[in-house]
Amino acid sequence: MATGNDSFNARTNDPHLSQLIDNLSIDDQRVLSRLLNTWEKRDQRKHPRMPCSIITEYVFNEQDYKGVMQNISLDGAFIVSRHELAVNQQIAQSFFFPNFEIPIRSNSKIVWVGAEGFGVQFEFVQSDK
Q1: How far apart (Å, rounded) are the C-alpha atoms in residues 14 and 33?
Q2: Helix then strand then coil, % of the chain, to nearest 5
Q3: Which of 13, 18, 61, 68 lies 20 to 30 angstroms, CA to CA, from 100?
Q4: pLDDT the model gives residue 45
């Protein structure tokens, strides 16, 4: 059983999971730590993100906002924004691709929030024609 400073630093609010980790040997805790670090570094997205700098307008609670998409993929984007939104909130957004005159509109779901902005998953995308 791990004790003292050698124990695995588990960040969990689940007491059962914490107890399980604490009952692992030091070697098993190290293996678990390496596996988790490797897993966290994997890009878990279905589609690769491409860097960009595209202004996007979005509506939330009948308020208009602007942000900058810093990267984009077929199914989502990261939007740099100072506005505080929460995971699972829905926004309506629109943006233009460079050299493309038709706006892209999307109903998007916020899937994660960070200090610099938030990630969205496009749920319905259309372009005006």
Answers
A1: 17
A2: 20, 40, 40
A3: 61
A4: 59
Q: Is the pLDDT assigned to residue 38 strictly greater than 70?
A: no
CATH 3.30.70.20 is held by the domain 50-127: no
Distance CA 127, CA 129 (A): 6
Sequence-separated (6 or more) residues with CB below 8 Å from residue 97: 54, 104
CB 54 within 8 A of CB 98: yes
CA gap 97, 27 in Å, rounded? 51
- What residue spans define the domains of the chain? 4-41, 50-127
Contact present, 122 and 76 (Cβ < 8 Å)? yes
